[in-house]
Amino acid sequence: MRHGSKPTIRDVAEAAGVSLTTVSYVLSGRPGGNTRISQPTQDRVHAAAHELGYVPNRAARGMRRGRTDVVAVAITDLDDSGDRALAAAAARILPRRGYQPVILVGDSWRQFMLSGGADGVILGSVPADRTTEDLETMAELVERGVALLVFSDTPQQDGVDLLPPGTAGTADAVAELAVARLLSRLQD
């Protein structure tokens, strides 16, 4: 391993004395194909990864799998109680379901999502009248199979789930409902 660089899967394989394929299978939790990987070998791989401080590259993993395991929550203002509750609910719920939440404030959501930044997005309390750019971005994301949930009273195009802003319940309960609905869409 080069000084100052992050450890790679190759470094873990060398430290454990195994092949790259073995490290890949062990660290991903997948079975070893037609070859059974013994528990002592698995323990060596995990120990080497821990000792080196190896952290998987989520972007590379996402490219291989065709998904990011990231959900974006696009909000307008952290001072807004509904937006704050939505961000808090996402941060609390998504990791338990295997997703990394990314909270985006302002208009940055369009560029982030169009660059493939997340598998789904919840659009929080944005103005009732969406811009043409918002609508075009949403249409493109639907075309790509990205899950979308929008807080809106106004019907959007097919493939976009709606949650009316006046949905009954506390801000936390509505935020949890939004996250749950988007997750069910991701599971489809």
Biggest sheet details: 5 strands, parallel
Average pLDDT confidence is 81
- H/E topology pattern: HHHHEHEHEHEEH
Assembly level: single chain
Outline the low-pLDDT stretches: none
For the secondary structure, the number of strands is: 5
* N→C terminal distance: 42 Å
| Helix content range | 40-55%
Instruction: Describe the strand arrangement of the main beta sheet, using strand numbers.
Output: 2-1-3-4-5
From the alpha-carbon coordinates, what is the Rg to the nearest angstrom? 20 Å
Structural class: alpha/beta
Mass-distribution shape: elongated
What are the SSEs and their pairings?
Blueprint: H1 9-16, H2 20-28, H3 39-52, H4 58-65, E1 70-75, H5 81-93, E2 100-105, H6 109-114, E3 120-123, H7 132-144, E4 147-151, E5 160-163, H8 171-187
Parallel strand pairs: 1-2, 1-3, 3-4, 4-5
Helix pairs in contact: 1-2, 1-3, 5-8
Please characterize this protein's 3D structure.
This protein is an alpha/beta fold and 188 residues long. Helix 1 packs across helix 3 (39-52) and helix 5 packs across helix 8 (171-187). Helix 7 links the parallel strand 3 (120-123) and strand 4 (147-151). The chain has a 5-stranded parallel beta sheet, sandwiched between helices. Helices cover 47% and strands 13% of the residues.
Task: Provide a quick synopsis of the model.
The protein is an alpha/beta fold. It has eight helices and five strands, in the order ααααβαβαβαββα. Helix 1 (9-16) crosses helix 2 (20-28), helix 1 crosses helix 3 (39-52) and helix 5 (81-93) packs across helix 8.
